Amino acid sequence: MPRTKSPLSRREVLKFGAFTTVGGVLTPGISMAQAIVTDTKGISAPDITLTVKGTAIPGYEARPEAPGRYPIVVAISGFTGLTEQHKDVCRRFAHAGYYAVAPELFHREGGMAGKPQPELSRISASIGRAQYLGDIRAAADHAKGSRSRAPTGSASPASAAAARSRCTSPPRTRT
Asked: What is the architecture of the domain spanning 43-146?
């Protein structure tokens, strides 16, 4: 594919980008996005408590209200922990027919809300792999133990392999 030349120089891109950024800061009423909140009609979406090696940690689950066996999704939060935005992602999965469960991975460390970025990084790095995996397993076990749960191995081996390859392989290019 032939490269096209940009009509703007690098200097102009930076200049216009700075104006756009300053304009966005000076006009917060225009630039502030409204939070999207997915409703709970047709789904069950309660806060839950997960037990991990005798320690209670908060979590959140969302699943369709209709009885049945639904594929399980364990939703992992980023640095910010289990926020309303993250709960909304779980509700979206439930509306799509999944049983989504999310553990609060940073509960033992006092949560992450309101902490500056360097502290978030320090806290996240201080948690061992065993703790993360234990919390994730507890969330999956909670979902498996529910009446409206997915069958063991909720995704077929073929679809799981395809998902792994999409996540780990570089994109294929046509020649």
From this structure: 3-Layer(aba) Sandwich (3.40)
